[in-house]
Design a protein that fits this description.
There is one protein chain. The chain is α/β, with parallel strands linked by helices. It has a single domain (13-36, 43-208), classed as 3-Layer(aba) Sandwich (Uracil-DNA Glycosylase, subunit E). It is built from eight helices and seven strands; from the N terminus they run H-E-H-H-E-E-E-H-E-H-H-E-E-H-H. It has helices at residues 13-20, 55-60, 67-79, 111-128, 138-145, 151-154, 173-177, 182-208; strands at 46-50, 86-90, 97-100, 103-106, 132-136, 159-160, 166-170. A hairpin with a 2-residue loop joins strand 3 and strand 4 (103-106). Helix 3 (67-79) crosses helix 8. The longest helix is centred in the C-terminal third of the chain and has 27 residues, at 182-208. The radius of gyration is 16 Å and the shape is globular.
Length: 209
């Protein structure tokens, strides 16, 4: 379980974003160009949590602006989820990378990085009050559930986060981009869209009573 003990944080998304810009809770602040905070409307229905910023997010300071973000927005349209009713963020707010030649290559964050960033994620949740969490990948799953789970064993289920919010876990869109075979990639994408549709249908069912 991830500890929720934290110092008092600002009480608005804008103030949280400003405060997070100076976060030095772990060593990743030395790696990333800047903190990449979440974006979206307060009181969004859907709250998407990814792993960490990528190279493009690190440069721009905005979440999901690279190829994964493009694919996510396409899937949202197909799942009939309004992007304007969605908040997107990451479990870890700085880009962790390893240098290969002159290129910065993605390196998965460690548990200590997830825990260091967890107060920011909880503060975002407290401000947005979403109806549905969608965890994208294993890092997001750990951040939302507070424990390791095998995505394959819980996909297609409506779970509950540590905060008692309805949660659906699926793959990170970046994993789809890494599938070399076109037909396999297409099938994986269709399943990803189905997961998002399940999230929408669960919200609609709850609203219908």
């Amino acid at each position: 379980m991830i500890s929720h003990r934290r110092k008092s944080l600002p009480s608005s998304l804008a103030a949280l974003r400003r405060a997070a810009a100076g976060c030095e809770a772990c060593e990743l602040y030395r790696c990333g160009t800047q903190t990449v905070f979440g974006e979206g409307p307060k009181h969004a229905t859907f709250f998407f949590v990814g792993e960490q910023p990528g190279a493009q997010e690190d440069r721009t300071g905005r979440p999901f602006v690279g190829p994964s973000g493009v694919l996510l927005r396409r899937a949202l349209r197909e799942a009939e989820i309004d992007e304007r009713d969605s908040y997107v963020t990451n479990a870890v707010k700085h880009f962790r990378w390893t240098l290969r030649g002159t290129r910065k290559l993605h390196q998965s964050p460690l548990i200590r990085h997830i825990k260091a960033c967890h107060p920011w994620l909880i503060a975002e949740l407290e401000q947005v009050h979403p109806e549905m969490l969608i965890g994208l990948g294993a890092t997001a799953a750990y951040a939302l559930l507070g424990k390791r789970v095998k995505l394959g064993s819980v996909r297609g289920q409506v779970l509950s986060s540590e905060q008692g919010i309805k949660t659906i876990l699926t793959v990170h869109p970046s994993s789809l981009l890494r599938i070399p075979e076109p037909e396999a990639r297409h099938q994986a994408y269709r399943r990803f869209v189905s997961d998002l549709k399940l999230a929408r249908q669960a919200v609609e069912k709850r609203k219908a009573g």
